[in-house]
Amino acid sequence: MRFRGEPVTGVIVSGRLAPLPNQGQRQELTVLADSTELRMIDLDNVTALKLTDARS
Fold it and tell me: What is the pLDDT of residues 8-56, one digit of tens each?
Protein backbone atom coordinates (compact mmCIF):
# COMPACT_ATOMS: atom_id res chain seq x y z
CA MET A 1 0.00 0.00 0.00
CA ARG A 2 1.18 3.55 -0.67
CA PHE A 3 -0.05 6.00 1.97
CA ARG A 4 0.93 9.66 1.52
CA GLY A 5 3.68 8.57 -0.86
CA GLU A 6 5.24 6.07 1.55
CA PRO A 7 4.99 2.29 1.25
CA VAL A 8 3.18 0.51 4.10
CA THR A 9 3.15 -3.28 4.43
CA GLY A 10 1.39 -5.34 7.04
CA VAL A 11 -1.85 -7.09 7.94
CA ILE A 12 -5.31 -5.51 7.79
CA VAL A 13 -6.87 -5.82 11.25
CA SER A 14 -10.20 -4.15 10.45
CA GLY A 15 -12.01 -1.72 8.18
CA ARG A 16 -14.85 0.67 8.87
CA LEU A 17 -16.89 3.59 7.62
CA ALA A 18 -16.20 6.47 10.00
CA PRO A 19 -18.90 9.14 10.32
CA LEU A 20 -18.01 12.75 9.54
CA PRO A 21 -19.68 15.77 11.20
CA ASN A 22 -21.36 16.85 7.93
CA GLN A 23 -23.29 13.57 7.52
CA GLY A 24 -20.57 12.09 5.29
CA GLN A 25 -18.42 9.03 5.82
CA ARG A 26 -14.83 8.06 5.20
CA GLN A 27 -13.30 4.63 4.79
CA GLU A 28 -10.59 3.67 7.27
CA LEU A 29 -8.37 0.63 7.70
CA THR A 30 -6.62 -0.45 10.85
CA VAL A 31 -3.33 -2.05 9.82
CA LEU A 32 -0.72 -3.86 11.88
CA ALA A 33 2.35 -2.70 9.99
CA ASP A 34 5.45 -4.86 9.57
CA SER A 35 7.20 -2.27 11.79
CA THR A 36 4.80 -3.47 14.59
CA GLU A 37 2.90 -0.14 14.58
CA LEU A 38 -0.88 -0.24 14.71
CA ARG A 39 -1.97 2.39 12.16
CA MET A 40 -5.31 3.94 11.21
CA ILE A 41 -5.25 4.71 7.50
CA ASP A 42 -7.78 6.93 5.75
CA LEU A 43 -8.34 5.36 2.32
CA ASP A 44 -8.78 8.82 0.75
CA ASN A 45 -5.00 9.20 1.10
CA VAL A 46 -4.11 5.79 -0.38
CA THR A 47 -2.80 5.85 -3.94
CA ALA A 48 -2.27 2.10 -4.43
CA LEU A 49 -3.33 -1.05 -2.59
CA LYS A 50 -2.26 -4.62 -3.32
CA LEU A 51 -3.91 -7.50 -1.48
CA THR A 52 -2.12 -10.83 -1.33
CA ASP A 53 -3.03 -14.14 0.25
CA ALA A 54 -0.50 -14.92 2.98
CA ARG A 55 -1.28 -18.62 2.65
CA SER A 56 0.10 -18.84 -0.89
Answer: 889 999 999 999 989 899 999 999 999 999 999 999 888 888 888 776 5
Determine the Cα–Cα distance for residues 3 and 39; give it in Å rounded to an integer: 11
Alpha carbon of residue 28 to chain centroid: 6
Domain boundaries, the chain: 2-48
User: How many Å apart are CA 26 and CA 44, to the nearest integer?
Assistant: 8
pTM of the model: 0.75
